[in-house]
Every structure is written in structure tokens, then in C-alpha cells.
Design brief:
Helix content is about 40%, strand content about 15%. The chain is α+β, with helices and mostly antiparallel strands and about 80 residues long. The chain has one domain.
């Protein structure tokens, strides 16, 4: 099955170095994989990760969230036909 992932380069919960290692393993295993990195923090696509009640390591980013959502819908359109 194809895999789509969205990564935040400033994610304190899942470091980008960990992503690099995971992507290397996916390539080695010949997984059909599409990954995108965003200059953002953890939970960048979560609208609730904003304002005074948010968890410190999270930060919603409307622009990156929209980009990730558009890429997700395109991926679904390509893979689920």
C-alpha cells in the first residue's frame, strides 16, 4: 500500500533526524512512499493547537495545514481510483 506522510521540521516530539532514518528504511524496503516536510511545529495541521490552551510543543499553521490537506486529497485521488 502506498504511504503518505507530513513531517514538521521543528517538531520537538518527533525529531526530523528520526524522519530521515525512517525514510531511509522505507526506501530500503521499497515502500511506495511520498513524504513532505514543512517548516512547522508538532500538530501544525491541528486547528486546536493555537492560543493559550495549546500544548507548548504544538503550533497550528494555517498555510502549511492547507498545503498538507491539498496534498492529502490529491494523494487520495491518485491512489483510491
Amino acid at each position: 500500500m502506498p504511504l503518505l506522510a507530513h513531517w514538521a521540521t521543528q517538531d520537538a516530539a518527533f525529531a526530523i533526524a528520526t524522519v530521515d532514518a525512517l525514510e531511509a528504511k522505507l526506501r530500503e524496503a521499497k515502500v511506495r512512499y511520498e513524504g513532505h516536510c514543512y517548516r512547522a511545529h508538532h500538530a501544525f495541521a491541528n486547528e486546536e493547537a493555537q492560543g493559550p490552551g495549546r500544548i507548548d510543543i504544538t503550533q497550528y499553521d494555517a498555510v502549511w495545514a492547507r498545503t498538507a490537506w491539498d496534498r492529502t486529497l490529491r494523494f487520495f485521488g491518485q491512489q483510491l481510483t
